[in-house]
From TrEMBL:
It comes from Arachis hypogaea. PROSITE patterns: WD_REPEATS_1 (PS00678), WD_REPEATS_2 (PS50082), WD_REPEATS_REGION (PS50294). This is Anaphase-promoting complex subunit 4-like WD40 domain-containing protein. Transmembrane segments: none annotated. WD repeats lie at residues 195-237, 332-363. GO terms for biological process: rRNA processing.
Amino acid sequence: MNDAGGAVDEVARALNVADALGKADKLDDIALGLKELDMEHYDDEDEGVEVFSSRIGDLYYPSNDLDPYIKDKNDDDSEELEDMLINPTDSIIVCASTEDDLSLLEVHILEDVGTSEMNMYVHHDIIIPTFSLSTAWLDCLQGREKGNFLAVGSMEPSIEIWDLDVIDVVQPCMVLGGILEKKKKGKKKSIKYKDDSHTDSVLGLAWNKALRNVLASASADKRVKIWDVATGKCESTMEHQSDKVLAVAWHHHEREILLSGSFDHTVVLRDGRMPSHPGYKWSITADVESLAWDPHTYPYFVVSLEDGTIKCFDVRTAKSESTSDLSSTFTLHAHDKVVTSVSYNVSAPNLLATGSMDKMVKL
């Protein structure tokens, strides 16, 4: 009787608690819930159950539009992601700039070209350690068959190659040449350079589009070097000019032919197929600033000069001896100050652009 009385008391107490909560039938709900969980047989589950389901749709959706858990599919994050995407129809422009002692590589995107919606914006920028003097784009590197890379020359004797496809990159992916160590004994300083490095500022760079692993560099050390970016090594060094070499340019179609221009008032053509040949030399009237091959008239090249002129030469007039004091095919009195850059339009024959210290670009 005592046991029965105790059970009745427990039931009465439980009913009183449930009634106090205003849910007298809660015990039935709890009992039903426990029955559905079947806790008595919890440890008897099949051992083969998958902890991480492999069924597509449980955790993975091919796109955000198909994911029912993403309520707002047009949020700010989606817009930012769209801004970061580079479409096949976009044009990419890389600009080297310096402001307040901060040097940058700015990657600009030009979108919707030829439409009323045409727009240009900075996609991302890269902080570089020194003031840029020369740049050259290239599409391959050691261990990378395809990509977007920029070689940068500066007041340092090294050439840094930066990966433009990486956001927030903090260091170059390759360095060609440079200083190995510096020592100072009293007032004397000694510098040890890496093997085959330039020993002064790198003033000009040119990538060979036909031989994609080849990069040419021009330096204030009076040398021109040919680098293999697939190995990171210097393949050859040329010393055919007597002053700072400011510009180099590969021929568009004859992939072994290279021009170099110097402060010694000469332009030299060298053919990599004849390394022992001293090349062909044109004497000019002022310091060379830049060089460009005509992509439509293969034998012609132009040189921009410190005196504000542009001169065009025909390589077919070069003689077999190493020096050719020949007149130019034409001369443009383009600017009143130094003509720092010259560039042909590869799509429009005979269209040439010049940039000058007079703060103008002319066509």
